[in-house]
Amino acid sequence: MIARLTGKVSEKSDDHAIVDVGGVGYLVHLSQLALASLPPRGEAVTLRTYTHVREDALDLFGFASEDEEAVFRALIDVKGVGPRAAQNILSGIEARELAQAVAQGDVARLTKVQGIGKKTAERLVVELKEKLVALARAAGPAKARPGADAVEQLRTALVNLGYKPAQADGAADALRDGAEGKKLDELLREALKLLRG
């Protein structure tokens, strides 16, 4: 089992990156938030990974933090949530925020995440409440970042995803007015919709 990779970012795509480790390129599936935190191409990176083995495939899923990996592993223990679905969920909500929502039984917050319907949200709360309560406590109260900070972080995230600085500036400027009180994951989703037309 491959638990960690250290190498250079070779390529980035919408849902994965290729990490060059000693001349071997590993395709690592990543959430949008993890992709946004990657350094630019050619730069060194270390990723925690989960190896998913099936009869017809061997997939690597990567994480930007221990928290993201812990929540991913908890999610895939839930009936009906596979690695791809867990990754998609973590593209729509930060790991600690998801842990808080589950611990507080906040079904309404969970259903705002793409890919989580009401039944799935209720199942997550029932099955994961005990597992994620420690992470939720560590997260403390959710804090909204000031709008200007979030817009600057959005711009950096878009450049890290491979968009040209001018494209990142355009998307960030378009979302600046409504950014107050929004978190980076929300702004990133909106910006990606804008950029992809």
From TrEMBL:
Molecular function per GO: helicase activity
Statement: the UniProt record of this protein carries the keyword Hydrolase: yes
Keyword line: ATP-binding, Cytoplasm, DNA damage, DNA recombination, DNA repair, DNA-binding, Helicase, Hydrolase, Nucleotide-binding
Main location: cytoplasm
Region (Domain III): 146-197
Chain positions covered by the region annotation Domain I: 1-64
Location within or outside the cell: Cytoplasm
Entry keyword annotation includes Hydrolase: yes
Highest taxon in the source lineage: Bacteria
Start and end residues of each Helix-hairpin-helix DNA-binding motif class domain: 73-92, 108-127
Family per similarity comment: Belongs to the RuvA family.
Domain remarks in the Swiss-Prot or TrEMBL record: Has three domains with a flexible linker between the domains II and III and assumes an 'L' shape. Domain III is highly mobile and contacts RuvB.
Quaternary state and interactors: Homotetramer. Forms an RuvA(8)-RuvB(12)-Holliday junction (HJ) complex. HJ DNA is sandwiched between 2 RuvA tetramers; dsDNA enters through RuvA and exits via RuvB. An RuvB hexamer assembles on each DNA strand where it exits the tetramer. Each RuvB hexamer is contacted by two RuvA subunits (via domain III) on 2 adjacent RuvB subunits; this complex drives branch migration. In the full resolvosome a probable DNA-RuvA(4)-RuvB(12)-RuvC(2) complex forms which resolves the HJ.
Described function: The RuvA-RuvB-RuvC complex processes Holliday junction (HJ) DNA during genetic recombination and DNA repair, while the RuvA-RuvB complex plays an important role in the rescue of blocked DNA replication forks via replication fork reversal (RFR). RuvA specifically binds to HJ cruciform DNA, conferring on it an open structure. The RuvB hexamer acts as an ATP-dependent pump, pulling dsDNA into and through the RuvAB complex. HJ branch migration allows RuvC to scan DNA until it finds its consensus sequence, where it cleaves and resolves the cruciform DNA.
Record-given protein name: Holliday junction branch migration complex subunit RuvA
Protein's organism: Anaeromyxobacter oryzae
Gene of this entry: ruvA
